[in-house]
């Protein structure tokens, strides 16, 4: 069981969304932020780094957006859907852009393939949580 799920299970009140869906999204956001941060660092170690500038920038942007979104999404006390929903939508869009760019380099660089996969999972999770938010 993930730490996100353990924390949600220990929350003293009820949630406005399914706890399993929320935990899955939090885990996907954290994984995507980590994968994007690592991929940007790996990209900088490649010989053809100039070919990866767009990928690096998108990875750094995606990592930052995911980190902000996971922080806000993890706070259930005083929850405001008018704040959380746009963040999730922005995160889904950023994850899609980053995933698309990483996929372009996936055959050449395994780290880009892994990052693209994490971005796709994050994008899906964000869309699913947005759909569930009232």
How is the topology of this model organized?
Layout: H1 3-9, H2 19-44, H3 53-74, H4 81-105, H5 110-132
Radius of gyration: 15 Å
**CATH top-level class:** Mainly Alpha
User: Fraction of residues in helices?
Assistant: over 70%
Total discrete domains = 1
Number of helices: 5
Order of helices and strands: HHHHH
> How confident is the prediction overall: mean pLDDT?
92
Number of strands: 0
Q: Which fold name fills CATH's third level, the topology?
A: Substrate Binding Domain Of Dnak, Chain:A, Domain 2
Strand content is: under 5%
Low-confidence stretches: none
Give a short summary of the structure.
Helix content is 77%, strand content 0%. It has 134 residues and is an all-alpha fold. The protein has a single domain (3-132), classed as Up-down Bundle (Substrate Binding Domain Of Dnak, Chain:A, Domain 2), CATH 1.20.1270.
